[in-house]
Amino acid sequence: MAETEVVDNHLEERYGRAKTGRLDKRVLTALAGVFAVVLIAWVAWAGLNGDNGTLEFRNIGYSIDDEANVDITFDVTVVPNTPVACALQSLSESYGVVGYKVVVVEPSDQRTRQFTETLRTISEPTTGVVERCWTLENDQA
After folding, report:
1. Do the beta carbons of residue 87 and residue 102 sit within 8 Å?
2. DSSP-assigned letter for residue 109
3. How far is CA 34 from the centre of its chain?
4. What is the pLDDT of residues 64-91, one digit of tens each?
5. How many CB atoms lie within 10 A of CB 126?
6. For residue 30, pLDDT beyond 90
7. CB of 87 closer than 8 Å to CB of 118
8. Distance between CA atoms of 126 and 122, rounded to whole angstroms?
9. Domain 56-135 grouped into CATH 3.30.460
10. DSSP assignment of 26-48
11. What are the structural domain ranges in the chain?
């Protein structure tokens, strides 16, 4: 009988029927549980934070008035009552900056607002865009 037991143990170890499989299932179950808890915590945290701190801008369009002016239309989306500044620029045909201006968007109760600003240029512009926007501290507005 001892010989049969040795052969059976050898076959079980060789083909994966060892008794350690039960322990592996426990470890995998525990890891899956930890992963599920972390995933649920992250989803709850992301849902509670939402996008309250986001600042977004979108170029709507531009209109070249003459050789020295371009009107730039853009949207700003930000948490209500947050002061924002945006850098506007106009480019030439060779992509050189021919106009630059920082405008302050005063705080408002509205989350998304649209603006049109006139930008003076030093030579004929071919485009006008918002380069970037950032939030201001309350004393900077």
Report:
1. yes
2. S
3. 27
4. 989 999 999 999 999 999 999 999 999 9
5. 15
6. no
7. no
8. 12
9. no
10. HHHHHHHHHHHHHHHHHHHHHHH
11. 2-49, 56-135
**Reported pTM:** 0.61
- Written as six digits, the tokens of 137 are 């501290």
Report pLDDT digits (tens) over 113-128.
999 999 999 999 999 9
* Parallel, antiparallel or unpaired: strands 69-77 and 56-66: antiparallel
Contact between 77 and 57 under an 8 Å Cβ cutoff? The reply is yes
The upper half-sphere exposure of residue 24, i.e. CA atoms within 13 Å in the direction of its Cβ, equals: 6
Q: Are 140 and 82 in contact (CB under 8 A)?
A: no
DSSP secondary structure of 55-97: -EEEEEEEEEEETTEEEEEEEEE-STT--EEEEEEEE-TTS-E
Cα-based angle 67, 72, 77 (whole degrees, multiple of 5): 170
Asked if 140 and 86 count as a contact pair (C-beta separation under 8 A), the reply is: no
pLDDT for the residue 140:
53
Which pair of tokens denotes residue 101?
Answer: 């201006």
